[in-house]
Amino acid sequence: MPVVNISFDRLKEFLPGVKTDKALEMLPFIGLDIEGIDDSIVRVEYNPNRPDFSSDYGIIRALRGLLGIETGMPKFRLAGKSGFSVKVGRPVKKVRPYVAALAATDGRLDDETVRQIIAMQEDLHNGVGRRRKKASIGIHNLDAISFPVTYTALSEYSFTPLGESLKMTTKQILSDTETGRTYGHILKGDRYPVIYDSAGTVLSFPPIINGKETMVDTSCKNLFVEVTATERKAAEDMLAVIAFTLYDAGFKIKTVIIEDAKKTETPVAAPARMDIDVSYVNELLGLDLDAGKIVDCLKKSRLDAKSSRGRITCSIPRYRTDITHPVDLVEEVAIGYGVYNFEPTFPASNTAGQKSALSTYFEAIRQTLTGLGMLESFNFSLTSRQVQYELSGRPAEDVISVDASKSAEHEVLRNSLIPSLLQSLSRNVHEEYPQKLFEIGKIFRKETDRIEERWHLAALTSHDEAGFTEIKSIMQALFSSGFGMTASTKAASDPLFIKGRCAQILLQDRPVGVIGEVSPLAIQNFKLRMPVAAFEVDLSGLYSGQD
Amino acid sequence: MSIDVSTLHPIERSILGEIAKNEPLSIERLAETCKMSLDQVRRGVEWLKFKNLISVKELSSYFVSLAPAGQAALQSGLPERRLVRAIKEGKSIMSEILASGMLDGQEVNAAVAGARRNGWILFSEGSRMSLTEAADKPSAEETLLARLQQGELEQGKLSEDERKGFELLKKRPGYVEVKEQKQILVQITEQGRNLLPALSEEKPQERRLTSELITSGRWKQVELSSLDVEAAAPSVFSGRRHPLADIIEEVKEIFVGLGFSEIDGNMVQSGFWNFDALFTPQDHPAREMQDTFYISGRKHAIPASKDQIARVSRVHKTGWGSWNAEESERVVLRTHTTPVTLQHLARARPENARYFSVGRVFRNEKVSYKHLVEFHQVEGVATAQKASLRDLMGLQKEFYAKMGIKKVKFWPTFFPYTEPSLQSMVYNERLEKWVELFGMGIFRPEVTQPLGIKNPVLAWGGGLERIAMLRFGLDDVRELYTNRLGWLRSVPKCQL
Fold first, then answer.
1. CA of A19 to nearest chain B CA: how many angstroms apart?
2. Contact (CB, 8 A) for B334 and A451
3. CATH number, domain at A11?
4. Are B464 and B388 within one domain?
């Protein structure tokens, strides 16, 4: 989850009369996780559904509501039209079709504000922007731009990117800069998006990097912000978050004309409206609040609300893109009410609980085998090719592997349990013998239209005298004491076992598993020093009551 | 200090018995007569000495053995014997004998002296030799040599004859040698001797109660020896369920007690059930390969009805702007157990029900002391007409209480498929801090409505390994899947 740093100074500045301890205590109740506190900074993690929490401005906005300092929709007023426009060229419609922009004027950028804005931009890129794939932001020094600007796509162009001293071609940027290599994969085809002004200055190569000419520093008073995106909604959502943040930071926000197929003006700051029933809120929360109280709670969550005859009409500020359904308003009521104020109630039940038949069946197996002195092991279903095939000497056929595993120890789904148990033995060569292990676990098999999952049981014993007779006795005891069944064995072969010391396990002539003495080669491969005898049974085949 | 004979170890009894019969005995001799190992005797002697029942003294003894000339004499005879043989062959004058090589010039004196001493030869005509009848009998020296051929002899225990031979041979260089050997001799003390009557009155001792003793009734005539009941015994290990299985079982019992029934399902799921049906947008970061395991090279038809697919795709198009069947057909190792729960709810569409599951889930993580790629998730859902957030908190609190967790806090959080959503923190007494545990919420209408589920569904869940780590005091979650016997054998079954 993304992290925002909030300094205690900013908390004091924006939450007048509130002790820092109290402010910190309230942070979790607007949905933030405190990750750490050092000296005079608190680091909080926020959930990706709240892009407005990507700067401390948004967080303080919410805290002011919950603490009752300022409730209802946050103040926000567009300061009119900037008169500037962005012309959208047709070639970009196939690459990254949407753009939205705003002008922010008459502001002042101090170090902390710049830090917050840069951090916000990064978080928005990663979250709502889906690592810039869906939407990305460029923030520029307005005074360095000659309007109108053009947003289009060109096959190849060059400019001096931010952080470089020389002109580079788009190709060079993609291959020679870090951001180019990180985000270049987003651009498909042979045309690259570009934003340039009427003087030919390149503002940005979206979504890769901005131009150097329009770089922002603390001396900037006026900003130009553009968001390019693959979806209009994403561009507008992101711009709304930025608009509110810059407004809170003291800028005047003015609209920019987007000259696309149609002329539009951004940002769109009008609140959304949504209705909610008082009864719906109370039923879902288990409370009995009157309409007035619900309106108060919503206001503490920085929404506007009016009630009329059991119905509440809400105004939702444009940056709250997460509120899409009345149920989202119910949560806003809960947060405004204060989650700490909820008294848990234990609901009466008229359902009788029970474990699954499978659980009961496995418990019987566990009891029987532990009664025989065996230890249960837990191993991963996702194991390595090496353990499953190479070391055990079984052929790697119909292997089920996963894509892009971060570890070679977890790359294939098991088709048998014994190899994992041998691996367990290999970690215990210095422990006392005899060692007797078993495991109940799933194995996986490829079918044409699905992956078949079956429950298996494997057991083994390892000590100086371990052998076929001992393991067969254990196997027979499992079936007779556990289930009143008689198992028999019939000679078979399996590369994991010694030739002539391996058999199929039969229940009334039906093969249900394999049993034998593990081959010395496998024993050696697993770096073991003692003989091992093992068996494995398909439990799903035995038990018909499974769902 | 008087000693109760019944406390004597069988080794001690055996030694006392032997030295009571005989003179002081060496350790080696005792081992032989008591049929015990040297170590056993040494141990017994130490015990008895400590109890002042025996005394021990060190004694030197001298042993006679063959020297090289003696060895040679055994092969070819002593010089006097060879002289006799030569005379028998008809050589009666020394010059003839020396010429035959049967005697060496240097041996002449010894041969003649020896033969005379033994009374074997007579001289006539000055220097002509003839044999007496005694010449066929072995001399004392010869007898001793023959005895020594079988091994060394203790000097003090030689027979008269042997001693005579020894005295004679000792004077002749190179035939025999004498070595000193120190010996530990064990002797019974007065106190020990006083115990003997009591010992002999005792019934015969048996160390083991055997089936033969029982069935023959002979156990009545014998006494079973006391054992050192305070001695250490070798370790044996109980078979046992995996500690994690213990916790799973405990969790299941708690759920059943709260009226929940267990459900179970596949680990391999479709993108549709694992994500789409749970209103997780198709471009959500959690769905990328960096976070989620997909089965290589597989796409399966969506295992849902046409109607379900249509409704789910509609909420995605409305809520997120797009939906692709391709993405839903991907085959994924479930990232949570909720797809199983949801399919069960979609099938049963209960108005009032409580279900739970405990199963494995998968995340494409880098394995570390706090992250696994595969772990257990516990999940509970409850649906009822008036199910509420407070009920959810109450169920959660009750669940924790039954696990022994008393202090619980809740705060708002976010999950794609629940609203409202809460996070719970519990206070861990051992660590003396708050620990994040289960997440919970009410299924969003975008999840329930497309599947025809009418009433609110309260859901909560989280990883089980975290609870296990707290319970067993583990710092490394991997320990739970390493199967180190040292650990498995040491985890107590029940923590009182």
1. 21
2. no
3. 3.30.56.10
4. yes
CA distance B78 to B176: 13
Distance between CA atoms of residues A508 and A486, nearest Å? 8
* B404 and B271 assigned to the same domain: yes
Residue A519, domain member (yes or no): yes
Nearest to B364 among A286, A345, A406 (CB): A406
CA-nearest residue to A453 within chain B is: B266
Q: Which residue has the tokens 């149609």?
A: A262
Residues B293, B437: one domain? yes
Nearest to A404 among B239, B364, B413 (CB): B364
In CATH, what number is assigned to the domain containing residue B141? 1.10.10
The pLDDT value given to residue B1:
55
pLDDT digits (tens, 9 = 90+) for A299-310: 999 999 999 998
- Looking at residue B47, which CATH number applies to its domain? 1.10.10.10
Inside any domain, residue B234: no
**C-alpha span between A260 and A339 (Å, rounded):** 46
Residues of B in contact with A288 (CB under 8 A): none
Q: Quick check: A351 and B352 in contact, CB under 8 A?
A: yes
**Side chain identity, residue A69:** I
Please check whether residues B405 and B465 belong to one and the same domain. Answer: yes
Amino acid type, A36 = G
Residue A356 sits at φ, ψ, to 5 deg, of: -70, 155
d(CA B226, nearest CA chain A) in Å: 30
Compute the average pLDDT of residues A187-208: 94
Task: Tell me: pLDDT of A121 over 50.
Answer: yes
A to B CB pairs, distance under 8 Å:
255
- Is pLDDT of A292 > 80? yes
Same domain, yes or no: A262 and A329: no
Domain extent for B137 = 66-174
Q: Where does the pLDDT of residue A545 fall: very low under 50, low under 70, confident under 90, or very high at 90 and above?
A: very low
Task: Verify that B291 and B435 share a domain, yes or no.
Answer: yes
Domain of residue A303 covers 272-339
**Are B281 and B134 found together in one domain?**
no
Q: Does A30 touch chain B (CB under 8 A)?
A: yes
pLDDT of residue B496: 61
Whether residues A57 and A118 share a domain: the answer is no
Nearest to A351 among B352, B394, B396 (CB): B352
What six digits make up the tokens of B416?
């794609």
Mean pLDDT to the nearest integer, B21-50: 87
Question: Which A residues, 108 through 167, put their C-beta within 8 Å of a C-beta on chain B?
Answer: 130-131, 133-134
Tell whether A404 lies on the interface with B, counting CB pairs under 8 A.
Answer: yes
Q: What is the CA radius of gyration of chain B?
A: 49
Residue finishing a domain among B224, B252, B282: B224
Residue A478 is which amino acid? L
In this structure, what token pair is assigned to residue A149? 């600007």
Tell me what ipTM this predicted complex has: 0.93
CATH number for the domain spanning B451: value is 3.30.930.10
Mean pLDDT over the full length of chain A: 94
Same domain flag for A93 and A152: yes
In-domain check, residue A349: no
Nearest Cβ partner for A347 among B374, B384, B412: B384
Query: Is B495 a domain residue?
Result: no
pTM attached to this predicted model:
0.80
Distance between B358 CA and the closest CA of chain A, angstroms: 10
The answer to whether residue A445 neighbours chain B at the CB level (below 8 Å) is no
* Domain contains A421: yes
Determine the length of chain A.
547
Which tokens hold the place of A409?
Answer: 């120890």
Q: Tokens 């460029």 map to which residue?
A: A138
pLDDT at position A2 is 87
Count how many domains chain A has: 4
- Contact (CB<8Å) B367/A28: no
- For residue range B357-411, list pLDDT tens digits in order: 999 999 999 999 989 999 999 999 999 999 999 999 999 999 999 999 999 999 9
Among A324, A376, A435, the residue with its CB nearest the CB of B242 is A376
Mutate to test the interface with B, among A185, A277, A380 (most CBs of B within 10 A): A380
Residues of B in contact with A436 (CB under 8 A): 239
Residue B359 one-letter amino acid: G
Residue recorded with tokens 């396990």: A505
Higher pLDDT, A89 or B89: A89
Whether residues B53 and B154 share a domain: the answer is no
Residue A73 domain-assigned? Answer: no
